[in-house]
Design brief:
Number of strands: 5
Order of helices and strands: EEHEHHEEHHH
Number of helices: 6
Oligomer: single chain
Radius of gyration: 18 Å
Largest sheet: 5 strands, mixed
Strand content: 15-25%
Distance between the termini: 53 Å
Helix content: 25-40%
Shape: globular
Amino acid sequence: MLQLNYSGLELECGTDEAGRGCLAGPVTAAAVILPTHFKNQILNDSKQLSEKKRDSLLPIIEAEALCFSYTHIYQEEIDTINILNASILAMQKSIAKLKPAPEFIIVDGNKFKPYKNIPHETIIKGDGKFLSIAAASVLAKTYRDKYMNTIHEEFPMYNWKQNKGYPTKEHREAIRKYGITKYHRKSFKLLPSQLTLEV
């Protein structure tokens, strides 16, 4: 059972990102403050939930949260500032949009930079421990997936609708065959250095 609160403060926000390991598209983060009476039996780390469950949770989270927001940081900026900094920036930009502002921030993972003077705690696998981080993980994943479905229409040969930009065998084959697009992260290793040649 996921816990509701880490700090004991009422305005505690959870934040998480999606798409860090992808070869194309943005890294997307979300931040959520849940009310102190929030309960949900299904909500969990977005990776443990089916797409159908995430889609059904999205309107519930948005209706019941005190506030929420999400932010895309696109591939050009990822290539400029690196993926870790882009992930943290996406989280901080999401937190900045919250009204009311949080009194405490809990972050999935082990890397974060102080934001304003708000105390924070990084929690490894936090999206499987705290409801607000799980809610942020569902928002980040769902909104990123929607974006990848949209750009799939422009470049269907990469099948982003299915792989969402992750380095699947199919995605890498398409990069080898068609080259890269404006949505690919050029600072990432897009193809393995040792490509096996067909004999």
